[in-house]
Design a protein that fits this description.
mainly alpha; signal
Length: 212
């Protein structure tokens, strides 16, 4: 599989914890043709007029895309899925359960993410280190304790968005809290997290591209 394509697909799902991220805006700048095809695929799933209407109602593109996937699997309307989602504390788990959708089907790219991150572990740790201010040794220590590499990436973005130390995010995880619960506890806006994630992903992408 083309590395740029895998990078795009992987990081589209990197914030999946309690929520699923399929927002094409989270992808690195300078999309390849394969990336453009994925972006177009999302838009083909949703009528442009419906997209505009839902955006005007306050939903983000990310939420609309996720709802579109659940609607597709459950043969329901996107607006109906979003209405339930909003009434149930913005929980994708509850929403998926309500419509009988297995989140694993939507999260199927997770194993690609783990494989990709491990294949580029050196670059990922380097960029997370620069981004979070934590040494590579400290980051390796987190990994040795069982913290997934993908959590270091998403956790670093959340820490930056919340103006917190990455160590605090790791500590909350060790208390058994999910990314969604940590986000709620820190009262950090999800769009801020995605903005920071995009910055970090861009840096990782650039470094990997230079190595080719």
């Amino acid at each position: 599989m083309n590395k740029k394509f895998l990078l795009f697909v992987s990081f589209c799902f990197i914030l999946i914890g309690a929520a699923i991220s399929v927002n094409a805006e989270s992808a690195p700048r300078g999309k390849s043709p394969a990336q453009e095809q994925i972006h177009e695929h999302h838009h083909r799933m949703i009528d442009e007029s419906l997209m505009k209407s839902l955006l005007e109602q306050g939903f983000t593109k990310r939420e609309i895309f996720i709802a579109a996937h659940i609607a597709k699997f459950s043969n329901k309307q996107v607006a109906e899925v979003l209405t339930f989602y909003k009434k149930n504390n913005s929980s994708w788990e509850k929403t998926a359960q309500q419509y009988g959708v297995d989140l694993d089907k939507i999260k199927k790219h997770h194993h690609h993410l783990d494989k990709f991150l491990e294949a580029n572990k050196g670059v990922v740790l380097q960029k997370v280190s620069e981004y979070s201010g934590k040494s590579a040794q400290v980051l390796q220590g987190y990994l040795d304790k069982g913290v997934p590499l993908r959590f270091l990436v998403s956790g670093a973005a959340m820490a930056k968005a919340a103006n917190k130390d990455l160590g605090e995010i790791i500590q909350l995880r060790e208390q058994g809290k999910s990314l969604h619960e940590i986000k709620t506890e820190l009262n950090v806006d999800k769009e801020q997290i995605h903005a920071e994630m995009k910055k970090l992903v861009d840096e990782i992408h650039k470094e990997i591209s230079k190595a080719k």
